[in-house]
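Known limitations

Structure tokens in this collection are predictions and should be treated as such. Users comparing against experimental data should check residue numbering before alignment. To illustrate the layout, the record for ABC-type multidrug transport system, permease component is reproduced below. The input appears on top and the generated tokens appear beneath it.
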Amino acid sequence: MTDYQLFSTTQHDDADRSDPQPATYYHLAKAVLIREFLLFVRYPANAIGGVVVALFFFIVLFYGGQLLAGRALSDSIEGIVVGYFLWTLSSGAYSSISNDIGSEVQWGTLERHVTTPFGFAPVALLKGIAKLVRTFLTSVVILIGMLLVTGTELAFPPVTVVVVASASVASVLGLGFAAGGITVLYKRVGTWLGLLQFGFVILVSAPVFSIPWLRALPLAHGSALLQRVMVDGTRLWEFDIVELGVLFAIAGVYLTGGYVVFHYATRRARRLGVLGDY
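Generated tokens:
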């Protein structure tokens, strides 16, 4: 090979390496996960404050309930701990999505997501999944604190808990996306959307065994299965296939429905020219 050929080949290889490569969903998922990690590291007081506040309210609930209910509360404390764990997880996932989109609207950075090659909806979906991961980690810390306060022992098979809890909260993610779409379209509706978090308490404690149709509501069926996992020690493969099928079907329906509402709400906002207005 001559010097000219060697120079031409090297120059061609350098040009190939310098060409920008198109971004993929892997790069997008990596970016939003790093973003959530940096937000946690750079603003730890906010994350720690959320854990402290959640534990404070549980302590008030626990000791106040002991004064009022006494033995009745002690007999059902395992179910209360599991229910509160699922409530903190679902509330955190829901509010993080809806509040994040509301913040993007106020900051005026919403258009950056719309102009990405991925589109606004996929970016919001992956950001929601990243926030769910962070919320799950903080909720586990809250769960450990509740177990120390109450002296309760619960089963925690990691795979089963992650699968059942994630499928349960997926329906809440759908509600969060729908709320985010409404926020983009109507801007300041946080007062109304915040009321839904109190409804999660009813859904988590819904009597699905005595009223079977309540299983169709978000969180209700997943809460019942999570109680069996963490209180009774039931493993994932020990559940009936129909029960797991209903759990994933409910998660898919609400997540898809919320995603569709978010997509069409943002499209309508763009059509009306109010996407970047506040």
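For this record: The mean pLDDT is 78. Residues 26-272 form one domain. Please report discrepancies through the issue tracker.
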